[in-house]
Amino acid sequence: MTSRGTPSRFLQSVLQNGVGRYVCQMKRISLIFSKNGQSSLGAREFIEEGVVDFAQKNPGTVVYVSPQSCRIPKIVAEYLNGNVKEEAITSKTSQQIAELITKLTNQSGLDIIRIRKPIHTDSPSIQGQWHPFTNRPLSIGPIGPQKQQAN
Amino acid sequence: MVFLTLSCWIRNRGPDRYWKVQEVLSNARHFRGRKNRCYSLAVRAVRRAFVYATKARKIKRRNMRTLWISRIAAASREHGMKYPALMHNLVKSSVEVNRRVLSDLAITEPKSFLSLAKLARAGQQEGFGAALGDGKEPPGVFSRIVTLQ
């Protein structure tokens, strides 16, 4: 709740993703649902219709579908940097689950915490960062090869 | 004899005191002294911290603006101008650069800031000339007030 008490990070992309080829950062998505259970109805509908298309569209992500006897159906998304995100999909429609899955696919695995600045540059200064001698005139003239004094 | 009133004397307290306390203490872990450990002290400190955090959202904007202004003032004094003169002349020359960007330019792009300062200085001299001079236009400049004839 306080800025010091809660974690924060700077804006970044994972390994400059998108500068070259874009790599989907979600490596695994597991749909845990129950075969008979009204809260998993949307999950079951989504598995009937949309899961195969989703898996074909995202060839870099592994899709696991695991029917278990569970009270709350879940989506577990794992990302390439090791973060795991669990979302409960109790009593959601198939459409809502599809939107949720697209949202998870588009996320990088970075933590969703306060971002300190909305900008990031690797080269903040083009003309050279200011230092105390930038606008000072030189005290000695241009430095050249020393003339050898004849003694 | 059967003692029946003994069981009526047992109280069932709430089951989640620990978690309610941890909820508050987790926000107080980075505090100094006993207020990061002891609940009664922590409750008061956490409430004050949240109040300060709420008030600080407006104050942060104020502080950032004063920081930018003091940085621009320092940079313009390096080039021989003062902050009010710089801003007024930039506005007159219709350079609508805000203080945040100006302070970033002063730090990371000192030559661009120098050129802006020179522009403002030229505007300032022009203003002095118009105010103190004879009312004629400076040599080599035709009037900006273009009248359709």
Automatic annotation (TrEMBL), chain A:
<dbReference type="GO" id="GO:0005762">
    <property type="term" value="C:mitochondrial large ribosomal subunit"/>
</dbReference>
<keyword id="KW-0809">Transit peptide</keyword>
<dbReference type="Pfam" id="PF05047">
    <property type="entry name" value="L51_S25_CI-B8"/>
</dbReference>
<dbReference type="GO" id="GO:0003735">
    <property type="term" value="F:structural constituent of ribosome"/>
</dbReference>
<dbReference type="GO" id="GO:0032543">
    <property type="term" value="P:mitochondrial translation"/>
</dbReference>
<dbReference type="InterPro" id="IPR036249">
    <property type="entry name" value="Thioredoxin-like_sf"/>
</dbReference>
<dbReference type="InterPro" id="IPR007741">
    <property type="entry name" value="Ribosomal_mL43/mS25/NADH_DH"/>
</dbReference>
<comment type="similarity">
    <text>Belongs to the mitochondrion-specific ribosomal protein mL43 family.</text>
</comment>
<dbReference type="GO" id="GO:0005743">
    <property type="term" value="C:mitochondrial inner membrane"/>
</dbReference>
<feature type="domain" description="Ribosomal protein/NADH dehydrogenase">
    <location>
        <begin position="35"/>
        <end position="108"/>
    </location>
</feature>
<keyword id="KW-0687">Ribonucleoprotein</keyword>
<protein>
    <recommendedName>
        <fullName>Large ribosomal subunit protein mL43</fullName>
    </recommendedName>
</protein>
<feature type="region of interest" description="Disordered">
    <location>
        <begin position="123"/>
        <end position="151"/>
    </location>
</feature>
<keyword id="KW-0496">Mitochondrion</keyword>
<dbReference type="InterPro" id="IPR039927">
    <property type="entry name" value="Ribosomal_mL43"/>
</dbReference>
<keyword id="KW-0689">Ribosomal protein</keyword>
TrEMBL record, chain B:
<comment type="similarity">
    <text>Belongs to the bacterial ribosomal protein bL20 family.</text>
</comment>
<dbReference type="GO" id="GO:0006412">
    <property type="term" value="P:translation"/>
</dbReference>
<dbReference type="GO" id="GO:0005840">
    <property type="term" value="C:ribosome"/>
</dbReference>
<dbReference type="InterPro" id="IPR035566">
    <property type="entry name" value="Ribosomal_protein_bL20_C"/>
</dbReference>
<dbReference type="InterPro" id="IPR005813">
    <property type="entry name" value="Ribosomal_bL20"/>
</dbReference>
<dbReference type="GO" id="GO:0019843">
    <property type="term" value="F:rRNA binding"/>
</dbReference>
<dbReference type="GO" id="GO:0003735">
    <property type="term" value="F:structural constituent of ribosome"/>
</dbReference>
<dbReference type="GO" id="GO:1990904">
    <property type="term" value="C:ribonucleoprotein complex"/>
</dbReference>
<keyword id="KW-0687">Ribonucleoprotein</keyword>
<keyword id="KW-0689">Ribosomal protein</keyword>
<protein>
    <recommendedName>
        <fullName>Large ribosomal subunit protein bL20m</fullName>
    </recommendedName>
</protein>
<dbReference type="Pfam" id="PF00453">
    <property type="entry name" value="Ribosomal_L20"/>
</dbReference>
